[in-house]
Design goal:
Number of strands: 3
Organism: Gluconobacter vitians
Keywords: Membrane, Transmembrane, Transmembrane helix
Strand order of the largest sheet: 1-2-3
Radius of gyration: 57 Å
Shape: rod-shaped
Largest sheet: 3 strands, antiparallel
Protein name: Replication protein
Helix content: over 70%
Length: about 180
């Protein structure tokens, strides 16, 4: 079968491998055991630092909590007054803006009216028709002329508008405003 020497050689080889493995394990264990005190000191230092940091966080949280608890009334009053102040400021600014808008609109309307009056005055002063209208107004005839209340004339309305026409049909004819607009 097998040679007894071969079995002994295989057993010796296995025993030698086991011995080498044990030696390597002992060396690794010795290395780790030598480093353990230093690692333990580092862990203790980190534990102390994290304990101090946790204590500071806890102190800060308690300070904030106590501030919120004790000054809640003051905080609410301050916020309330701040909100009231904002409302008054917004109202004041809105009033100023509204006043300025109203002023600007009134000013623009006044300017337009002044321009119309200026143009009318310019017409009355610089044209022969304007002079004649002025003289008719001084005599009290301009209103009668404008409303077609002149003897020998009557109001006629057609699709083109309202006209002051001669009763005989041979006189002048001019447009007038409808009588209901002057009432």
């Amino acid at each position: 079968m097998s040679d007894p020497d071969d079995t002994d050689v295989l057993g010796l080889r296995a025993f030698e491998d086991l011995k080498n493995t044990v030696q390597k394990s002992n060396k690794a264990y010795s290395d780790v055991a030598g480093k353990l005190p230093a690692l333990a000191k580092q862990l203790e230092a980190l534990d102390t630092k994290s304990t101090k940091a946790a204590q500071r966080v806890e102190d800060a949280a308690q300070a904030v909590t106590s501030y919120i608890k004790t000054d809640r009334r003051t905080l609410l009053i301050s916020c309330g007054f701040g909100a009231i102040a904002l409302v008054f400021c917004a109202g004041f600014l809105g009033d100023i803006k509204g006043s300025r808008t109203g002023y600007a609109q009134g000013f623009a309307e006044g300017q337009q009216e002044a321009k119309k009056r200026d143009a009318l005055a310019e017409w009355a002063v610089s044209s022969p028709s304007g002079h004649m209208a002025y003289e008719m107004d001084r005599a009290g005839q301009i209103q009668a002329f404008g409303m077609c209340k002149i003897e020998g004339y009557k109001i006629r309305t057609d699709q083109k508008g309202t006209w002051c026409v001669s009763v005989s049909g041979n006189g002048l004819m001019w447009p007038v405003a409808p009588p209901d607009l002057h009432q």
